[in-house]
Amino acid sequence: MALCRGEPSVPQLVLACCTALVIGEGVRTEGIFKHVAPAEAVERMSTCVAGGRPALIPPGTSPHVIATLLKNFLLGLEEPLLTYRLLPDWITAAADLDSGRVDALLAALPAANANVLRLLLEVAYYVNGNAADTEMDSLALAQALAPCVAWLPPALKPARPVAASGDGADAQEPASAANADVPATATGGAAVAAAEGAQKIVPLEGDEAQAVVLVLESLINRYAHIFG
């Protein structure tokens, strides 16, 4: 169950959360990513992994706390993981999931975003494999995670890159608001974004929201084929 440890531009918090979920009981926990952990427990964990040092999830931490912390980090990004620029393409790709458009969109993501998405999909793939225990199949997982990776751009809100933990070697340069390729990571504050949790975002609704769910469901089901 490799977790892409050698991949660049992955925030320490994301790597720590995904690793803890896979090697622990997270991928076999009922309702993982659906059930929300108590805010106090998530806040304590956010404080524990804050400060720019390598993130470490203490043994015995509730998988629901870890999953909620991960979702809060994603919701705390200035730009969604699927990016504002590519969002219309992700939505239209849902109409023909077998056309190869989804795979092309994966390749079009900024490297930081693509690496984080791959880790998230890997965890979801293992959870789906244990759906008899978790009661979270690929559709349920997609429904739980879609709001965390795609939302509408707030009007006139300037795009700013979100800092990532690590030693800075893999830091991404800030992208301009014009191209909207804001990487998921940069140097210094992944844990801060997680601690702050969900920012005020404009959620997708109706057919657009369902389209992202369908795309994620397909990616979870095809994870081994795409990345294997």
UniProtKB/TrEMBL annotation:
PROSITE patterns the UniProt entry points to: RHOGAP
Segments forming domain Rho-GAP: 1-227
GO biological process: small GTPase-mediated signal transduction
GO cellular component, one term: cytoplasm
CDD domains from the UniProt entry: RhoGAP
InterPro entries (alphabetical): Rho_GTPase_activation_prot, RhoGAP_dom
Protein's recorded name: Rho-GAP domain-containing protein
Lineage, uppermost ranks: Eukaryota, Viridiplantae, Chlorophyta, core chlorophytes, Chlorophyceae
